[in-house]
TrEMBL record:
<dbReference type="InterPro" id="IPR001638">
    <property type="entry name" value="Solute-binding_3/MltF_N"/>
</dbReference>
<feature type="signal peptide">
    <location>
        <begin position="1"/>
        <end position="19"/>
    </location>
</feature>
<protein>
    <submittedName>
        <fullName>Amino acid ABC transporter</fullName>
    </submittedName>
</protein>
<keyword id="KW-0732">Signal</keyword>
<dbReference type="Pfam" id="PF00497">
    <property type="entry name" value="SBP_bac_3"/>
</dbReference>
<feature type="domain" description="Solute-binding protein family 3/N-terminal">
    <location>
        <begin position="58"/>
        <end position="278"/>
    </location>
</feature>
Amino acid sequence: MKKGFIAVLAIALTLALTACGNKNNNGNGGAAAPSATVPSSPGKTATGKLADIKSAGKIILGTSAEYAPYEFHKNVGGKDQIVGFDIEIAKEIAKDFGVELEIKDMSFDNLLNELKIGRIDFVLAGMTPDSERAKVVDFSKNYYEAVQAVFVRSEDKDKFKTLADLENKAIGVQTGSTQEKIAKGIKDAKVKSLGKTTELVLELKSRKVDALIVELPVAQGYVANNPDLALTDITPKYESGGSAVAVAKGEAGLLAEIQKTLDRLTADKTIDKWVSEMTELAEK
Ligand code: ARG
């Protein structure tokens, strides 16, 4: 009788401890969980980049801060800072990891290479996960969706109604971007690729190009701030217009941890909130 009672107690205690352990393992940014509770990446969780990041106490973000509201420079309280909804997401990832965030700002077309050679740990740069890039890096699920937009000088707005109106025209795009691929696919288009969106806008204003292609939130920002520029109704199609986080190929443990943060921020609509906040900040 007494023996039986003790046995039941022991089982209850074991169950309680197991439940407790599971709770910790599933918590946000908790220490690497034993492989048994992470069937998607058995035994890989705390190896590779993920382990390096945790022992360094620092995660390095690669971005290209010239794409408001995704990421851009802003004078905040007399100091130049890199802000944007991608940056808010990166901060949250670092927080969940329990490490500091270091930001490396560079030209967009350098990001994938820097990731490959390990000088940065992850990329958030409004980067669209297309099949060509997926051959060299690994992507999270999309954390944000956007369509492509075309904007022109206001006086020309009537001339640009459909994609066919871009044929034979000078189109400005960012070097190495998905928009560059879109533009190159337009019949007889004269594609001008430059490193920065701000430079492209100057080219448009000074009539060196006739139209620019960027993601819609970016186009909306420029049009709102420049009465001489206007948005067209043309929305070129691409395999995706969404943005995803990129990590070096094969870093499954790191990617799984990042995805946890992204899932939380998309489920509770925090990212949508940041998109509007950062759009406002960019227009201030
Ligand atoms: N979504 C486009 C791409 O993946 C453009 C991204 C540009 N981002 C930036 N931070 N400049 O190519």
